[in-house]
Amino acid sequence: MNITGKSVIGFLLILFGISLFFGGGQIGGLIAGAIGAVLLFYGIKKWNDGRFASVILLIIGFMFLGGALPFLIGVAVSAALIYFGWSMMKQGGKKEENGFYSESSKPSAASYDTGFDAEWEDFLKKKQ
């Protein structure tokens, strides 16, 4: 892989996204978000049976999700940073031809014109 400016910036975005995701080491927002989602689900499901109980479940569910909102926003931002960083690293390694990226181009082996290959092929032809 070629180390270009895009690949370096992509690597830094990935590192920043990972540090944002694991920042503080707290997963309480995930648990609160899951509880809030479950309460919202049951509140919507019980809407036809009893409106009072479903309204209480919906209010508590929204409160849980509101408390978990900073964590959920942080997870979304970190996922976006990791995605864009990865795509920049992948684009940074591609060769450009006429301003466009070419996926069909294959890396060519380094060629050194020392004349040894031609002499070796002549030697093999003489031997047969």
TrEMBL record:
<keyword id="KW-0472">Membrane</keyword>
<keyword id="KW-1133">Transmembrane helix</keyword>
<feature type="transmembrane region" description="Helical">
    <location>
        <begin position="56"/>
        <end position="86"/>
    </location>
</feature>
<keyword id="KW-0812">Transmembrane</keyword>
<protein>
    <submittedName>
        <fullName>Protein liaI</fullName>
    </submittedName>
</protein>
<feature type="transmembrane region" description="Helical">
    <location>
        <begin position="12"/>
        <end position="44"/>
    </location>
</feature>
